[in-house]
Fold Tryptophan--tRNA ligase.
Amino acid sequence: TPRIFSGIQPSGNLTLGNYLGALKRFAQKQDEGIETIYCLVDMHAITVWQDPEALRRQTREAAAAFIASGVDPKRSILFNQSQVGAHAELAWLFNCTARLGWMNRMTQFKDKAGKNAEKASLGLYAYPALMAADILLYHATMVPVGEDQKQHVELTRDIANKFNHDFGVDFFPEPEPLIEGAATRVMSLRDGSKKMSKSDPSDASRINLTDDADTIAKKFRKARTDAEPLPETVEGLSERPEARNLVNIYAALADMTAAQVVAEFAGKGFGDFKPALADLAVEKLAPISTEMKRLMDDVTEIDRILGHGAEQADAIARPIVEKTYDIMGMVRSR
Ligand code: TYM
């Protein structure tokens, strides 16, 4: 049976990249009637330093962002990772399945650890095994993510496969990454070769889900572009990463294809396109930030939702991790 699992790190302001690459699609999958499990991966967030008060606030704010984006806690399971201990348990078992050589190929570790990898936490290195545990703990079959997480989902398939092979079982399914739509990789507004990221030091490089209308308009107005008008076809965007990025953002926000957007704006300059994009973004994002603010007024309600979601998640995860121990030969006698 199809089951979706995906997660977001509560490690700072969520961005338009998180919204288009993940949150918006999470709500769509739920509305298609597939079983959906969504997780605020606080244990992933702490692989780099997090101030405790900030982590608490960001976790609740990310939960508010899910709900404001249309994830309905009555129809999806929504919880924070650390409240379900089975994630850490299965991650340890997978640490013993995954090979060092596999981890050494992970590009996100290289990006995040930077030049001085000796100073990175051991958790940052082991992070992809925890992510595999997140997914396989629910026997999830589909993982909606942005382009940047593809390698980690492929590693998850390798771990599932090796575990099944090592123990001669057919226990873990090999999940598929779902990387769909016009905005699977939203780029920085300041540099068309860098991904839009909550950790970019430049706030002008990204749209935050909490930005107000004026800030959104200003950031799009100042977004880096070339001076050419928009082309007649998408092929005309191939050597124009900044222009392509803005077209993709417009397409994803409007539920159009990039080809349709280009057809509508062919021959127009950015003086016309950027204000149209800003208006569209404000129209789509303002209700989300308003709803997030309202939800954040009463965090007891958010905490109640996360607690209930954790109980539902635990009910699925506990038997699966117990079975995994059993397969591996650990005595279960309580
Ligand atoms: P994270 O927190 O970096 O990002 C959350 C989701 O947002 C997507 N995303 C983007 N999509 C398009 N354009 C962008 N600029 C952009 N930036 C981020 C990400 O691809 C992701 O889907 N390791 C994961 C979290 C995780 C997870 C999991 C995901 C932990 N366990 C299990 C799926 C399944 C991460 O760091 O995502």
Notes: Residues 93 and 325 are 8 Å apart (CA to CA). The pocket of tryptophanyl-5'AMP is lined by residues 5-9, 17-18, 21-22, 41, 44, 131, 134-135, 143, 145-146, 148-149, 152, 183-186, 195-196 (CB under 6 Å).
